[in-house]
Amino acid sequence: MQTKLFIGGEFVDGLAGGTIPVFNPYSGEIICEIAEARAEDVDRAVTAAKAAQFAWGRADAADRGNLLLKLADAIDAHADELIELEALDTGHPVRDARKLDVPRTSRCFRYFGGMADKFEGFVPPVYPGFLNYVQREPVGVVGQIVPWNFPLMFTSWKMAPALAAGNAIVIKPSELTPLSTLRIAELMRDVGFPAGVVNVVPGYGHTAGARIAEHPEISKVAFTGSTATGRRIVQASAGNLKKVQLELGGKGPNIVFGDANVRAAIGGSAFAIFHNQGQACIAGSRLILHKSIADEFLDGFTKFARSIKLGDPLDPTTEMGPLTSKQHQERVLHFSQVAKDQGGEILTGGKQPDRDDLAKGYFVEPTIVRAKPTDRVSQEEVFGPFVTVTTFEDDEEALAIANGVQYGLGSGLWTANLTRAHKFARDIRAGMVWVNCYKVVHPGSPFGGVGESGYGREMGFEVMREYTQPKSVWINF
Ligand code: NAD
Q1: Average pLDDT over residues 351-368
Q2: According to the CATH classification, is domain 253-435 in 3.40.50.720?
Q3: Element (H, E) at 336
Q4: What is the pLDDT of residues 135-164, one digit of tens each?
Q5: Among 182, 229, 233, 452, which is best to mutate for testing ligand 1, by the most ligand atoms less than 8 A from CB?
Q6: Distance, CA 225 to ligand 1 centroid (Å)?
Q7: Catalytic positions, written as ranges
Q8: CA of 332 to the centre of ligand 1 (A)
Q9: Coil, helix or strand for 195?
Q10: Distance of alpha carbon 42 from alpha carbon 215, whole angstroms
Q11: CATH for 5-248+449-473?
């Protein structure tokens, strides 16, 4: 298990010599102590990245792509190990990590490995006697800050396009879940990424993260995390006017219409909120049900929630693991009280499971709460296995409820009516809309939000634009 910082192609201790304990959220025990990156380590990493970026950005794009493809193969070859690492510090059930996180990670590196030599500039028609061509240049040194909910997958979302575009990176995984990112760094070293192109600095947000956000030689920060931290990053970025890309919180509406296939909607809505213990920015955390199917839906959905198998993330039959930290468990549990205080009704869950074998883990039972759309639990991101339910009479009301929050990230609707589906897809205030499905992602499809969910997009050609800047060259002939 790798526990050191990765700077300039080597695994090193932090200059101050501090360490951070990494917890197993199932047992509550410390798995290991990792080296702590502080501001001065970020500075070292930026120096290494700067030194490497010039050659990396000018290398044959196909060579950059080939390294990403090799990395994708190495991830698949080490899938078992990565699955276990991810389960150990996040609490992801291995069942999910095997089916989703690891294949999505290698797929992302593979996609952008293929993209590296296909992202083109253009030649606009200009005045006679002039040739103008526009090339896309890497931004330079990019700082990347990621949260703890999908550490492995987000490492690939951040690293792959930035590297394909020719940037060098300094990435800070969450202090809670650094293990899989450090293992990826080892695999990168092993497949031959040049020293300094990738630097990994696990540290706390207020020290290492804050230094990345303010660093004068970092040209762009790509951040995934909470809206509150996103605001701080924007403020800190003002010093050198760095580019900022923000993937922030969400409060995804999930509308089930009267004409929906209720059975499919129940299964899909359970995945939307309970997968990864609800710790997903795109979770479908607000169920908005048409009155005509509300009882039938809730009956099936509540049964589904109660049947989810909680357990040890390393057990291949476990369907839901613990939340990732004790502090977060307490926060999510507190929201049940917040709901009750405003007249909400807990239909199921709302507490820790009453089981001796789970007592040390940071578990929360799948929770369904009937609440008004204006209640705090319907407005604030809970980020746990916690879904609010409300009902509507007509389409207009459904849309008003769906759009009645500050966030605009993921959204979903279940209907057999094509016209209604397109109309809502147009009118919902969100970066992503899923019709008769939820939380489908692909490296080719833009991912990101509007409003307090942030700005900028991951994935596809959109993200390649984020990690490059156009240079316009004029030739007089
Ligand atoms: P967080 O904002 O507390 O932390 C995210 C990262 O930022 C961590 O690495 C942390 O160390 C760092 N950080 C904290 N303070 C910082 C500071 N002052 N300067 C720089 N970096 C700092 O978020 P979290 O609790 O780790 O993650 C959960 C949040 O992430 C939720 O709000 C969730 O919706 C959001 N999220 C968004 C997306 C998306 O794509 N939109 C995806 C996943 C998670």
Answers
A1: 97
A2: no
A3: helix 326-341
A4: 999 999 999 999 999 999 999 999 999 999
A5: 229
A6: 2
A7: 247, 281
A8: 16
A9: coil
A10: 9
A11: 3.40.605.10
